[in-house]
Amino acid sequence: MNNVGPGWMMLERFTREYDQRFHLEELLTMGMAIFLNVLIVTFSDIRLAPHIFLLNSGIVALVLLVNYMNRTINNATYSTFRDWYVAILLLIIYMEHNTLVPLINGTDIDSIIIKIDRILFLGNDPTILLERFTHPVLTEILQAVYVSFYFLPFLLVFILYMKGRKIDFHILASTILIGFFISYIGYYIFPAIGPRFTLDHLQTKPLTGILFFDFFRSFILKAGGITRDCCPSGHTLISVLTVMLSYRYYRRFAPVSFAWGTLLIISTVYLRYHYVTDLIAGFIIAVVVYRYGPALARLYIFGTEYYAEQPAGENLRSTWWRM
What distance in Å separates the CA atoms of residue 92 and residue 62, rounded to the nearest whole number? Predict the structure, then answer.
């Protein structure tokens, strides 16, 4: 494909101009860090979580520093670092929930979610119903899929990045970050520890694997502890969002993302990490984020003067530009 024509030239110009200011992913990350610090000050006592307050302050300072250094460092290595470093900050912010959620909102709502699940399933608990389908091989496969969660959205944006579609990369990365951060905020509003803790006494058949199941299970427990991160289901939200974005921006990846995402969603209940109500909440949020996230990202990147709605299934090289 020849990189010629006004559309290509304008795209290249927008890419260069976008790299000279804050990426939307950076603004979202700073906003989330500041939001959490506001929660600490407003609803808790800063003396109970000084390390988290300082960590979030450090995240904001790092983003500011990276952008300041961008004025003096102009090479491919630094540009690549800047495009990807927020992914590490996303994981750091997630790890704060284990300590911070109970300090901000100490009232778990598991009992309410359990009641909703039982209404939906005629008095039954979905994790109990799934006991009849448990098998060590299936459990092993689904546990491996469950821990691969972050790789699904990462692979989609990585493919676009390697294909040189940097604007599309930033649009998808921003949209996925919006999904993550909305789920994070949900944990503070609807704290829940999940059926692996609340319904364990009702389960009659333990989950067993064949190879790495116990390792993965214990790793998740040691890394996250009893984290109140069930509602909404981030696994469902990001998986559904990634599937929809792949159909729109890179359809060749869509069959893989659909199969991968479907197994991820099934694993959340089968492995007793989530209630079905969590999945429904995650699905609804995913649809909303998909509807508005890419449009907001394009609006930020291009502004109102040159902003054009991108038809589904097309990339920005074929966008009609309004002058």
Answer: 13
